[in-house]
Design a protein that fits this description.
By secondary structure, this protein is mainly beta. It has a domain of about 70 residues. The chain has one helix and four strands; from the N terminus they run E-E-H-E-E. It has a four-stranded antiparallel β-sheet with strand order 2-1-3-4, with no helix packed on it. Strand 1 and strand 2 form a beta hairpin. About 5% of the residues are buried.
């Protein structure tokens, strides 16, 4: 792993968000996280579960005997389990869904693998 000549700060915007930022206006039990992955050219269901099943950042820190991140550290928050295990993909699509009102917040990104230069 390489080093950078700058401080990592709020790398994924989760550290300073309220813990219920995405779900506070949904009635309990209606928040659902779904993620698809494109693996070997096929779009497959990669993750699915209730947001309530995710560990909060405070709990993850507590598991490591801390109440805050060390200076210069970044935290990538937990998620629901990957169906079939964690594996590489060329594209990920995710959405936060309210199945009753049929509303969703969606995001997708593609992975570009860089060549190994030795």
């Amino acid at each position: 792993m390489g080093t950078v000549d700058f401080d990592v700060f709020d790398a994924d915007n989760h550290y300073y968000e309220a813990t219920d930022a995405f779900i506070r206006h949904l009635p309990k039990g209606r928040e659902k996280l779904v993620q698809w992955a494109t693996i070997d050219g096929k779009r497959i269901l990669y993750q699915e579960g209730a947001l309530a099943a995710m560990r909060r950042p405070e709990e993850l820190l507590e598991l490591h005997g801390s109440t805050r991140l060390a200076s210069g550290a970044a935290m990538f928050c937990g998620t629901v389990g990957a169906i079939g295990g964690i594996r590489p993909a060329t594209r990920f699509e995710m959405e936060l869904e309210d199945p009753v009102l049929r509303r969703r917040l969606a995001h997708a990104y593609e992975i570009v693998t860089l060549p190994v230069i030795a």
